[in-house]
Amino acid sequence: MAQTVKQPEKTGGVGGAIVAAVLRIAVAILIPLLAIAILIWSVTFMTNRDANKALVAIVALIVGVGGVWVLYIAFDNLVSLLPENLREAVRPFVFVGPALLILGLYLVFPAVGTILRSFQDARSEEFVGLANYQFVFTDPTMLIALRNNVLWLVFVTSFVVGLGLIIAVMVDRLRLEAAWKAIIFLPMAISAVGASVIWKFVYAFKPAGQTQIGLLNAIWVALGGDPQGWLILQPWNNFFLIIIMIWILVGFSMVVISSAVKGVPGELLEAARIDGANEVQIFLRVIIPYIRGTLITITTTVIIMVLKVFDIVFVMTSGQFNTEVIANRMYREMFSFRNFGHASAIAVILLVAVTPVMIYNIRGLQQARR
Amino acid sequence: MSVTIQTKESASRDGIRRFFRSAPLWIGILVIAFIWTLPTVGLFITSFRPEDDINNSGWWTVFQHPFDFTQYTLENYDRVINTSGMGAAFVNSLLVTIPAVVIPITIAAFAAYAFAWLQFPGRTFFFVLVVGLMVVPLQMSLIPLLKLYVDLGNATGVELNGSLLGVWLAHTGFGLPLAIFLLFGYISSLPGEIIESAYVDGASPLTTFTRLVLPLSVPVIAAFAIFQFLWVWNDLLVALVFLGTNPDRVVLTAKLSALVGERGQDWFLLTAGAFVTMIVPLIVFFSLQRYFVRGLTAGSVKG
């Protein structure tokens, strides 16, 4: 070993070197074992319901934050014991191994499992061919869910991109730009559950004759209408849910588009003005073509988010009153109806719908980096 | 003299003209900003009003005497935090979120460093695999994972279903592809001379990573950390699936959503509860705005 040759005088002769090496090996093997033992003990401690709650919380934070580091360092030490030619061949796998292990366990293996289950019955016991897919595309309630997803796709995407673009160009010409952006971006920080409660209150309904405490009904009644239960008013209730997602996402698209708009060269705009183009023409003929790539990226990103929309529908209506969407239906198939075949088929449909858009997006990201 | 006066005049005339030209923009942005803030303001004000007032008058009526502080109360917060369990849920959200940010960042940083600067067989294959996994929606994982957790619990007694470790690892798995992709983009573009000179000086890969690569990667780590923090804090689906069975580990979003189901008309609880779930993201938003936008934009492709 290189190190024993290097430091003979420190440890005092060959005998000392051997003792030191043995000690080192013992320590390097013991530390990972000890680390794993402590981790296992702490996990059982955390699930112990009789334990002191504050103590559990502290242990959880220490283990959660520090545990992963301890494991890496311990295994790196262990690898350092290997003969030199082997050491550097094994070490990369200490670095990349945990990631691959978790990805395999949490994405690859389950994805295969879900695809298999999508061809099996409700309890994943027997193969039923394409029956689950037939259900997805023929069952009347599923068809409503699919229809609603299309509604969400069309309206959320067009409004988020359209409004985002308009607001981005507007604030570009105004003072206090950062403040306007912050106001419109703010909903992006809030959880979809929180946003849903905010809007549920806007849509709150009291019978006619009582004071309306929901903003929308108060305005509606003041204008002479009868109070409405907006969330059960079919088919418009879908749009009242869609508005929530638009409200959340416009700020995001506005910020991204805004930085693209700032990239339009001033000379280009100046040249267009000299040629006699008015502001609308400049917007349509110069700005939009110039930022086309960004607009497409935003569109694909929003499409992916909309395809997976779950929280808003879950909190607002749980998919009742014909407001179902596929991600919420998948959750209900899983936990309410206990039909893993149906739920898996819906998940696979989601994967198939997302994949082409996602591939396009990732390629765009990679090009942007070059 | 006359020349300067003229230019001044024309300048002020220009200013007026510019003002009139931008007036529609000002009106437009004011209307939009008003509409965008109104629902949140309504929630915020309502959360400080007594239960009876909330049910008998619209929240906008407080503006008749906005500085009459007797119409405001903190009782809703007291009730929702101490009686309805929002306080405990807040602690659980912290316990879920902090490790669910640190673990994937650590694992992703080690992996990204290996992909970028270490040689090993299958490097390209594994990297393409990782990037490819970004397309897999987490819905594809839920049923088999839950089954795996339950089977593991029955076989060994280690109960991951409903446990913190189970949900940390789930968030880690779902966040890793994006995290590795983003961190690799940054770490691989660090100048090679720096890293090679560290090797020449006898630094081990681990030392190079912790002393050199990690400190240099702070911007991308911060951006991803904020994104992942908000993602986990605001997540409902993963929390419902992996913690839903354990009443001791309910997080804020799941608690609020349960409150909507059980006490859908009790706006004094719902408004205060919603605000409790929002307070941490809002603090992050206002204190780290620049990183925040960068992080959310970077993470927007998450699957």
Which helices and strands, and how do they pair?
The complex is a heterodimer of chains A (370) and B (303).
Chain A (H helix, E strand, L loop, with lengths): L1 H5 L1 H4 L1 H35 L5 H28 L3 H34 L13 H8 L1 H33 L4 H9 L6 H11 L12 H8 L14 H26 L3 H9 L4 H12 L1 H16 L3 H6 L9 H10 L4 H30 L1
Helix pairs in contact in A: 3-4, 4-5, 5-17, 6-7, 6-17, 7-11, 7-14, 8-11, 9-11, 11-14, 12-13, 14-17, 16-17
Chain B lengths: L1 H45 L4 H6 L18 H9 L2 H32 L5 H10 L6 H18 L7 H24 L4 H9 L4 H12 L1 H17 L2 H7 L8 H11 L4 H21 L1 H11 L4
Helix pairs in contact in B: 3-13, 4-7, 4-10, 7-10, 7-11, 10-14, 12-13
Give short descriptive properties of this protein.
heterodimer; A: 370 residues; mainly alpha; MetI-like fold; 17 helices; disordered N terminus; B: 303 residues; 2 domains; 14 helices
Shape, per Cα inertia axes of chain A = extended
Domain count of chain A, please report it.
2
Tally of distinct domains of chain B: 2
Structure classification of chain B: mainly alpha
CATH architecture field of the largest domain in chain A: Orthogonal Bundle
Sheet bearing the most strands of chain A, described? none
Count of helical stretches of chain A? 17
Count the beta strands of chain A.
0
At the first level of CATH, the class of the largest domain in chain B is Mainly Alpha
CATH architecture of the largest domain in chain B: Orthogonal Bundle
The pair of chains with the biggest contact is:
A-B, 108 and 115 residues
Largest sheet of chain B: none
Counting helices, strands and paired strands, the structural category of chain A is: mainly alpha
Q: What is the overall pLDDT average of chain B?
A: 88
Radius of gyration of chain A: 29 Å
- Proportion of β residues of chain A? under 5%
Rounded to the nearest angstrom, the distance between the terminal CA atoms of chain A is: 44 Å
Determine the mean pLDDT of chain A. 89
Low-confidence stretches of chain A: 1-11
